Automatic annotation (TrEMBL):
The keyword Nucleotide-binding applies. This is DNA repair protein RecN. Belongs to the RecN family. The keyword Hydrolase does not apply. NCBIfam families: PRK10869.1, recN. Residues 318-362 form a coiled coil. InterPro entries: DNA_recomb/repair_RecN, P-loop_NTPase, RecF/RecN/SMC_N. Pfam families: SMC_N.
Length: 556
């Protein structure tokens, strides 16, 4: 459920923060005030394409954010967890659009792509109206809607799982058989294993080889350097450290005879002399023992060169070659013993295919029955919504191909005739935005409570209607609000009166700047706004009384 929407420097809105509750929230305002900006903001947060024209004049960027409560949306929580974007039962979508046209998006404070926004938004909100960004225009969604209407969750899940199982078994069989190049694959595996067994090393041995290579490559420098340090420590030069330390010890010894307090310092010099001598002896032995072995160096260097060559061939770091060895050995064992395994997999795949055919046939039969029922219910609602003679047909046709399909063996297309005598056309090709919005509303009412989307938005669903039909539209929206959170932009008082909450959008101009304000109306404010919608510029006592009656009747 949408809990809040925040916009800053967006179009004519300088700053607005709106809180939302359950039920039906209606949005009204004067023409040109920017009623649909809330819908536009949600579309952008749902991944719609952004452009610099959406940034308020004089600003460097527009900022949009929305908060959702996911307590009743397990699919959205699962998607966020899968994408590692989860943050408990709350979700924040944020988008920044810059004046030069670029934009950035975040989900729960972490960077996200517009594609991720769009994918998540399909689980959070449905937007219906005079926009093409509607889930109902997708054939895949139409099929899912039909399945939800008919209660096909278990049947559809069974078909999907069996199709997936059939495909996975096929992949395992192809991997085991090696396809048409099995013998070539076996020969290649044996060759690669022989190479890796000869050259690849476990991590500890590889580290030891690299250390040995460094030592052998620098043997001359190490011997020469160690001997030089010995000369500095205990050489014949009068500047050698041990000689200087001896002189310091002798001088301090004389002073200690005058003051015993210097004896601890004298002992430290004794210890330093001993340690310096041990260091010189150790380095002297090291300089004599450094392994100047060109043949061993060549051998180690060749081994490392071979390892790097194998790493490039297998596209792996040298340290991972030993792990690749185990992987190739397992694959070779599988291929060499593939005969019996292939027979078992083939039998399993045949059973999966038979089970799928049975489940898909049951699902297809139920889909065709449900399609007829859904078409009749939506057609009846279309008449109530001012589209007399309008018809919706749910066309179920066979999917292409004979292989098990996770969606079943059918595809679905919603066909609509908005007026008597017109042939049904695909819903996605219906031209009128107002008709499309009302058809969407009829479908939503007919399938009330059948899908898991928590928030539905209708942008001027009442376009082109009035009178009794408008009141019916409002009643249907209110009924829908009893099951889902609904946001509706409207210009009709009959619809606005049915809202559980009411937002008013107004436009103000001062100092040469135009600003849009969005405010939640209390009971008195709602009465006055309905009176304005009923009576126009001049609001009389009679229009206020009429508005009060409409509100009381709607709340009864």
């Amino acid at each position: 459920m949408l809990t809040s929407l925040h916009v800053r420097q967006f179009a004519v809105v300088e700053h607005a923060e709106v809180d939302f509750g359950t039920g039906l929230t209606v949005v009204s305002g004067e023409t040109g005030a920017g009623k649909s900006l809330l819908v536009d903001a949600l579309l952008l947060l749902a991944g719609a394409r952004a452009d610099s024209g959406m940034v308020r004049t004089g600003s460097d960027r527009a900022e949009l954010s929305a908060e959702f409560d996911l307590a009743a949306l397990p699919e959205a929580r699962a998607w966020l967890a899968q994408e590692e974007l989860d943050d408990g039962e709350a979700c924040q979508l944020r988008r920044v659009i810059r004046a030069e046209g670029s934009s950035r998006a975040w989900i729960n404070g972490r960077p996200a792509s517009a594609g991720q926004l769009a994918e998540l938004a399909t689980l959070l909100v449905e937007i219906h109206g005079q926009h093409e960004h509607q889930a109902l225009l997708s054939r895949a969604h139409q099929l899912a809607l039909l399945d939800a209407f008919a209660g096909h969750e278990a049947l559809a899940a069974q078909a999907r799982e069996l199709a997936t199982q059939w495909r996975e078994l096929g992949m395992r069989m192809r991997r085991l058989s090696g396809g048409e190049d099995r013998e070539q694959r076996l020969e290649l595996l044996r060759h690669e294993l022989e190479e890796l067994e000869q050259w690849a090393l476990p991590p500890a041995e590889l580290a030891e080889l690299e250390t040995s290579h460094r030592r052998l490559a620098n043997a001359g420098r190490l011997a020469e350097g160690a001997a030089g340090v010995v000369e500095l420590l205990d050489g014949d030069s009068e500047f050698a450290l041990r000689r200087a330390l001896g002189r310091a010890h002798a001088e301090l010894g004389k002073l200690a005879m005058l003051d015993e307090a210097l004896n601890p310092a004298l002992e430290l010099l004794d210890n330093a002399s001993i340690q310096l001598g041990e260091a010189a002896d150790t380095l002297g032995r090291y300089a004599q023992d450094v392994d100047l072995d060109p043949e061993r160096f060549a051998e180690v260097d060749a081994h490392l060169a071979r390892l790097h060559e194998l790493g490039r061939r297998h596209r792996l770091p040298v340290a991972e070659l030993h792990g690749k060895l185990a992987e190739l050995r397992n694959e070779l064992d599988e291929l060499e013993g593939a005969g019996e395994a292939l027979e078992k997999l083939a039998a399993q795949r045949e059973r999966a295919r038979a089970d799928y055919d049975k489940a898909a046939a049951t699902l297809g039969k139920s889909r065709r029955k449900a399609a007829e029922k859904l078409g009749k219910e939506v057609s009846a609602l279309m008449t109530e919504l001012g589209m007399a003679g309008g018809v919706l047909q749910v066309e179920v046709e066979a999917a292409e191909g004979d292989e098990p399909d996770p969606q079943g063996r059918e595809r679905c297309e919603l066909l609509v005739s908005a007026n008597p005598g017109q042939p049904p056309r695909a819903l996605r090709k219906v031209a009128s935005g107002g008709e499309l919005a009302r058809i969407s509303l009829a479908i939503e009412v007919a399938t009330l409570g059948k899908d898991s989307i928590g928030t539905m938005v209708f942008d001027e669903v009442d376009s082109g209607i009035g009178g009794a039909v408008a009141e019916v539209v409002g009643q249907k929206l209110r009924a829908l609000g009893g099951q889902r959170q609904v946001l509706c932009v409207t210009h009709l008082p009959q619809v606005a009166a049915q809202g559980h909450a009411h937002l008013y959008v107004s436009k103000h101009s001062d100092d040469g700047h135009t600003r849009t304000r969005i405010q939640a109306l209390d009971a008195e404010g709602r009465r006055d706004e309905l009176a304005r919608m009923l009576g126009g510029v001049e609001i009389t006592r009679e229009t206020r009384a009429h508005a009060k009656q409409m509100l009381e009747r709607a709340q009864a």
